[in-house]
Amino acid sequence: APHECGFSLRVIRRRAWTKKGKRKKVNGQRKRGRVNVMGALRYNDKKRVCFMIKKGNSETFHEQLKKLHEEIRQEWINLGNLPEDFREKGPKIIIILDNASYHKKKDVIEQVEKELPNIRLEFLPAYSPDYNLIELVWHSAKEYIANREFENKEELEKVVNQLLN
């Protein structure tokens, strides 16, 4: 299910283990910068696909759906199937989404129905992001990054990319 997440250059302080009576010092200046990711997690084998994005909007969402569709199509072809059979015989891809406004834009939904017939969009109930499994991936990545300082956006992006892909 494609979903977006942001990772900030600002040091995020979390709880940490220390010796009794000691306090952990976390250095970190206020830095501006952010790495945004759109990712998907396949339910049956937990395979994940994550793309770095500039920002979450309807155009980016549509582009990432096309990339995801193509990745699944290539995977299907690599299993020995014919490319021309994908539309009819390929896997049906159900994308479970939160209710972000750009996920529900009418023109995006129409484009997906027209261009990506193997994809069907389904929406979670309002205010229930915990039903989306990729939230666990985001949480783990953010916990790993917490209490760490990054010199620049590129360094943060490299670590996020290693964690998620």
TrEMBL record:
Residues 4-156 form the Tc1-like transposase DDE domain. This is IS630-like element ISMae23 family transposase. Coiled coil: none annotated. It comes from the Bacteria. The lineage of its organism: Bacteria, Bacillati, Cyanobacteriota, Cyanophyceae, Oscillatoriophycideae. One of its GO terms (molecular function) is nucleic acid binding. InterPro entries: RNaseH_sf, Tc1-like_DDE_dom, Transpos_IS630-like.
